Amino acid sequence: MDFGKLPDVSGVDFTLPPENPITDKILLSKSINKPLEVYIGPPIWAMKDWVGKIYPSNAKEKDYLHFYTRQFNTIELNVTHYQIPTPAMIVRWKEEAVKGFKFCPKFPQAISHDRQLIGAEALTEEFCNAVLQLGDNLGRTFLQLSPMFEPKQLKNLERYLKSLPEAFPVSVEFRHEQWFANKAIWKETCTMLEELGVGTVMSDVAGRRDVLHMTLTTNDLMLRFVGNELHPTDYKRTDEWCHRITDWIQKGLRNIFIFIHCGENKYAPELTQYWIKKLNNDNNLRIAEPKITPQVVQGSLF
Questions:
Q1: CATH superfamily of the 37-283 domain
Q2: What count of Cα atoms within 13 Å lies in the side-chain half-sphere of residue 4?
Q3: Three-class SS state of 77
Q4: Alpha helices in 69-182 (DSSP H)
């Protein structure tokens, strides 16, 4: 994930901002009778570097998804940002996934970026119909708005969200700076999302701390956490996040999707494992940890 990436993070203040007052209101107003569901995993499965580490040493590329779904319980499905999945792709994904695994598809860029949500009715219908075929393996979708999509287009966003199928599980990721610069605009936006039952996406990245808005509009958390190749701050940030999430769980948070980016993602399994250990320990959970095989580093004779 290149968005917000910095070559040097040593001077970044990664302290979590205080939560937006809207978050408390949302969580405390929702019923907590629903069981807690926590899904966490890296953002991709096609990683050759994971062969011999979390995939068998003889794993073929065509089998990576099969093995991924046996190590993690969700994935940020970015392939759908570039193409609407065919029926054959949906069937294959479902066949490879284990029971309980959740795919979280990203809306196609042809809708969100190219058309800016205007005149995209046919594409939207095609996308929604496709991902709904995932059935029980569908988690939450996320609509990443273009960095050029401004608050003056709020009504376009509202009209678009109202056009989606009823109860379609979607969260929105905002990127343009002006969404966060004006508190009144942000409050109006979040009120609209709450009324429609639409969630927000939070992104924790080094170079754009403003997008870490700490605002929930439903009792669903979708977090894109971007680490930095196991930099020491990755662990401190994880600890702070888990403390905040524990507080939100106690207040009523019930659905959690966390996607662990880690630079080039070679070490995403290790960082995800650390997250899972911390979440389990802090909340008495039993999220299955990935089984990571230690890598043998051959030394020099001299």
A1: Protein of unknown function UPF0759 (3.20.20.410)
A2: 25
A3: strand
A4: 87-96, 109, 121-132, 154-163, 178-181
